[in-house]
Write a structure and sequence with these properties.
This protein is an alpha+beta fold. The chain has six helices and six strands, in the order ααββαβααβββα. It has one domain (about 10-220).
């Protein structure tokens, strides 16, 4: 007669399997997030390259739009209708468009693979790219809004000159903290001006912001 497993032997095997799973799952999760971040970096780099081609056509002046997914307005310059529409002429990808429910239909490079869901119940917890048309924010747009508040004559020129004076600033950045692998600093990806390198988002101090505003005043 063949001898079967005893209860003790079965429990030992189950315990060993449980230990192996507990060791393996975090490593698999980390590898998966690393892959998502790499894809996100490729996305922002692609958008940055398209942005660079736009700057070649605009004589180096940033577009007056705030934020990435909506049109700008006011100020001394003429705003582009939407940076997403603008970049559609420079990227080999469909421009995000809305469906019948009012949510965006988006393809790469406009969405981060780690942008899976939001905390906004009013938007049905949809990911940011579904509600805003992209996972990424046009970083100079916030400074253009500030330039208008400060009554600068040409907000787009002011921000462009400030970026030329201090080239550590990103032009695109994740809209939320999606990449938790980073142990210190903002867990977001960004692409930088003027070489369009993709890397972690910067950790900016109030002094950094004050210097940037001073450069804006001189330029605008």
């Amino acid at each position: 007669m063949r001898r079967g497993f005893t209860l003790i032997e079965l429990l030992v095997v189950i315990s060993v399997i449980g230990v192996l799973i507990s060791i393996t799952l975090p490593a698999l999760g980390s590898a998966r997030e690393t892959s998502r971040r790499t894809k996100c970096l490729a996305n922002v780099r692609s958008i940055g390259n398209g942005f660079g081609m736009y700057l070649n056509d605009s004589k180096g002046k940033f577009p007056l739009v705030r934020p990435l997914h909506s049109g700008g307005g006011g100020g001394g310059g003429r705003p582009d209708p939407s940076l997403l529409d603008l970049l559609g002429d420079y990227l080999d990808a469909p421009v995000p468009r809305k469906d019948e429910r009012g949510f965006f239909i988006v393809s790469d490079p406009y969405k981060c693979p780690s942008d899976i869901a939001s905390a906004d119940s009013a938007q049905e917890f949809e990911p940011v790219w579904r509600t805003d048309g992209t996972s990424y924010e046009y970083f100079p747009g916030a400074f253009m809004l500030l330039a208008e508040v400060l009554f600068m004559r040409d907000p787009a020129l002011a921000v462009t000159k400030a970026y030329d004076a201090d080239r550590r600033w990103p032009i695109l950045m994740d809209q939320a903290d999606w990449h938790k692998l980073r142990r210190s600093g903002p867990p977001r990806n960004a692409v930088y001006y003027p070489d369009y390198r993709a890397d972690w988002a910067p950790e900016l101090s109030q002094n950094d912001i004050n210097r940037f505003i001073a450069d804006m005043r001189r330029g605008g």
